[in-house]
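Handout for the seminar on molecular recognition.
Each group receives one record of this type.
Step one: identify the two inputs.
Step two: read the structure output and locate the region that could contact tryptophan.
Step three: write two sentences on what you found, then compare them with the reference statements printed after the record.
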Amino acid sequence: MSSLSQRVLSGMRPTGQLHLGHLHGVLKNWIKLQHEYECYFFVADWHALTTEYDNTKIIAQSVWDMVVDWLAVGINSGEATLFIQSQVQEHAELHLLLSMSTPLSWLERIPSYKDQQQKLQNKDLSTYGFLGYPLLQSADILIYKAGLIPVGEDQVAHVEFTREIARRFNHIYGREADFEQKAKDAIRKMGKKNAKLYKELRKRHQEKGDTEALKTAQALLDEQHNISLGDKKRLFGYLEGKSKTILPEPEALLTETAKMPGIDGQKMSKSYKNTIALRESPASIEQKIRTMPTDTARVRRTDPGDPKKCPVWPFHEIYSTDELKTWVQNGCRNAEIGCIDCKQPIIESILTELAPIQERIKTYIEEPETVRRILIEGAEKARVTSRATLEEVRQVMGLTYR
Ligand code: TRP
Ligand code: SF4
């Protein structure tokens, strides 16, 4: 896709205190990304309202707990922009504007819409807000023109939907009356050699669907410094069709980090009550790991087992050295170690991992002003970027009254 933007954006609904599943599944990845890209990470409190509209009291505390946990694990407000969604109202305006051209059927066919309604049957989710959940998410993404969206598998459909929304928007509003002529003029401004190359690559892409040619052409445009940003955008748009790209299509960045199972072997999730919280006390951690189920074949200490069938093994995959893993493999299969022996190093690894995090959590709880300031400054920064996009959107939609 257009390589204009290497901005990263992700949001998390405020579900309160975080657990090891968040740390290993999401946050470690965010920490890495914040060093490599311009990152925006935000608390999706409006998204929380789509399901918690009748229970809003829990949202505020959840927001604080979550942000404290983010900071404590190393999400750095000096590197990434951290903010609360509802403090950047521009998201809401873009949501409204996008809603005008969003077909209802697109929203209705997103899998999470029916799935969640089924799952949360004790709640009336036949609401306008809930149906619009993915479109609000699209607004979150598009208002920053973010290119990369780190998400879990369950959110890929929402990023895909966002691409469709962007494409439709660009198609409807990205057409200038004299687009074709302007694009041709812009090509000429690149100089003879580049103009020729661009035209060839565009032809190959449009006539033969050659995606390599598309990528090469995009790279060529990235290197052009003699043409204006407006012309550059036109040429990105002209490559793919006949419209200007106003809202670039984002891509999902599937998290590669290890999957952290819960203490029962299912996915770690609050709703399964199988989590280890980042704030869990050492005694409770020890207790939870010690009572974890193991391979059911190991009834007695002398029965051999198979780590592949044991919920404890994935923890070794995350925490243990190769040497330790070999010890587990052999010891388990030959009944040379007991399950308690096997679990002990995991308990120690988790305690070692969480000790400094819990220290920092304590510090941030004692300094709520610091956390508040970080979020205020984050929202201010986010607003600068989102206003610029909104300004452009209003303009192409004809909402300028000057
Ligand atoms: N829907 C996401 C989730 O439940 C949270 C979210 C809201 C989000 N807006 C976003 C994620 C924008 C990525 C980008 O996890
Ligand atoms: Fe699981 Fe370890 Fe017991 Fe084997 S020895 S069953 S891997 S806890």
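Reference statements: The chain has three domains: 4-174+251-258+368-396, 179-239, 280-365. The longest helix spans residues 368-396.
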